[in-house]
Amino acid sequence: MTSPSTSPATSPATLPHVVGVFGGGRMGSGIAHAFLAAGSRVVVVESDSRAAAQALERVTGSLAKAAEKGRLGGPLQDVLSRLRTTADPAELAPCELVVEAVPEDAALKAQVFALVERQAPGAVLATNTSSLSIGGLAAGLAAPERFIGLHFFNPVPVSDLIEVVVGPRTAPELVERAQEWTRALGRTPVTVADTPGFASSRLGVCLALEAMRMLEEGVASAADIDTAMTLGYRHPMGPLRTTDVVGLDVRLAIAEHLARELGPRFEPPRILRDLVAAGHLGRKTGQGFYAW
Asked: Do 34 and 28 meet the contact criterion of CB atoms below 8 Å apart?
């Protein structure tokens, strides 16, 4: 594990000097990459030392690839000197912002927020949830006005968008700060109200579910459905390939949540349930709607 530099932070004034990321999986490591590349010090907290070491490997590998392509903006070792991965949440104490990036489980996220609020009582807390209620997640917090949604998109290092989700008790000045942070990261913010699925997940899942129904009905192959959207509508990736990248299990959980909140138009198709039950979760398992 690496230790953060003791020299003064070099991050722009509009970014927090020290950022915590709770969860070092694909999304958490990508979020850590984004803040490190922009100049912040970053502390990534994982569940145990083995997971922390794996998170370090993910972030280091991602930053190394960016450096090879000339996209890092500084020497790799200088950037890595501002990274620490750990299994000790007490190391979040100096953080000005902590972003949660654990699986889409409301109870798990609530446990994380309660822990982070104790360890970093002065920090802004943000969730990377793609569909869960910001108000619901903030219900047990002592300072819900310091809680906001920062929904990053996969793959984080090259994505241009962050969805800023405003909870019912989020302070207006925090919304402005979150928009500034987004721009300082080189992303574009879209600001949405705390509604089921927000804007991006609601529209993205709707399109993906219809593509799955079309595949079930034999309208066209997965490749042709995706090509119709990439060439006909200039989507960078079709809805089925995007589902493979996001994870079929993640899509299923979001669809089930939206079906409960918004009605049967978001009911997951049988093909999605069957693939998840078979363990075909997309790119991360090597098989989904495509073979990877």
From this structure: no
d(CA 184, CA 133): 26
133-172: pLDDT as tens digits: 999 999 999 999 999 999 999 889 999 999 999 999 999 9
Per residue in 57-92, pLDDT (tens digit) is 999 999 999 999 999 978 999 999 999 999 999 999
**Separation CA 129–CA 125 (nearest Å):** 12
The contacts of residue 254 (CB under 8 Å, 6+ apart) are: 104, 130, 131, 197, 201, 205
CA dist 40 and 259 (Å) reads 39
Burial 249-271 (b: 16+ CB within 10 A, else e): bbbbbbbbbbbeeeeeebebbee
Instruction: Please choose, from the candidates 151, 222, 160, 213, the residue with its C-alpha nearest in 3D space to the C-alpha of residue 188.
Output: 160
DSSP H helices, the chain, are: 26-38, 49-68, 76-80, 106-119, 134-137, 172-184, 200-216, 222-232, 239-246, 248-262, 270-277
Rounded Cα–Cα distance for residues 87 and 72 (Å): 27
Q: How far apart are CA 97 and CA 16, in angstroms?
A: 7
DSSP code of 8?
A: P
Considering the entire predicted model, what is its pTM? 0.87
The half-sphere exposure of 209 on its side-chain side, counting CA atoms within 13 A, is 23
